[in-house]
Amino acid sequence: MHKKRSLLRKIFLWVSATLLALLLTIIGLGFWLSPGELNFDSPYHPFKTEQAKEEYLKLYDERAKKWPVISTTKMVNTSYGQTFVRISGPDRAAPLVLMHGAGGNSLQWMPNVESLSKHYRVYTVDNVYDNGRSIPVKIMADANDYVSWLNELFDALGFHDRVNMVGLSYGGWITAQYALKFPNRLDKIVLLAPVGTVVQLSPEWIVRAISVAIPLKFFSRNFVYWLAEDAVHSGKKSRALIEEHVDETFMAVRSFKPKRMVNPCVLTDEELQSIRIPTLFMVGENEKIYSPHEVLERLNRVAPQIQTKLIMNAGHDLTIVQAETVNSLITEFLNQSQGIP
């Protein structure tokens, strides 16, 4: 009888926990799908309140003090809003634009900028329609808006052609979209586990990502720890970076007015084949947003002109946990003499 009661209790607790998780996911989905109207005229836009703006920017600026190389910053005006850009590296070096992942900002590149800025003029951009110091003035409705925004940004920064781009996650999808529309402005691109682009996002990732919209730090930490599992377990330095990312993710959820991001679409076979500029695609062997093997299989079969690399002992955290390897591969690829397969 005692064992039966114990079993029933376990079943009850499991069902209760499952229902609670489902309820919270539905709540998160509601936040995610119903971001509400953005008041672009608010004095503290894109933040919820003046206090939220002060708290987020204080945390942002404290993290920025750890930027490992000398840099300058500027706000660049575009028709989509003011775009915050941090610039590092030699004045006359070739331009290298780094695009961060969704829900983050340009400070995601701290483990990489010191290496990359030795030979390139590195421009780390706060996506104008995401977190950070950029200030949007209109809604991003589709991929074409991101492409147009980047074109305006590149013009304002004085770029003409032979621009290199590296995009991580959502930034990788934006980079691929730009390469499809304006290949003549680019020299080479590197795609680091881009969302969409090659295959659909996994259902588990979608459910976990939606939960971050719930304004409790537990959900931010749970998602980031799952996504960056290799970094969490690789040592104190990587773990500290992940904790900073958790703090920033949670602060962003509390501080910014929610925005509906453009859904990162998967490219057709013809679109992938049309990318003729030199392209390097990297993905960690433990990637969580999709199957890395499925991604590499499709690329190697459909678009063999795109170089691919599987990064060992890394997942979506490849720029952190395997920073030295990733930095080396990017630099080596960019330094190769031009030659389209």
TrEMBL record:
The keyword Hydrolase is assigned to this record: yes
Residues of the AB hydrolase-1 domain: 95-205
Transmembrane segments: 12-33
InterPro entries, alphabetized: AB_hydrolase_1, AB_hydrolase_fold, AB_hydrolase_sf
UniProt-listed Pfam families: Abhydrolase_1
Keyword Protease part of the UniProt annotation: no
Molecular function via GO: hydrolase activity
Keywords: Hydrolase, Membrane, Transmembrane, Transmembrane helix
Protein's name according to its UniProt entry: Alpha/beta hydrolase
UniProt lineage: Bacteria, Pseudomonadati, Chlorobiota, Chlorobiia, Chlorobiales
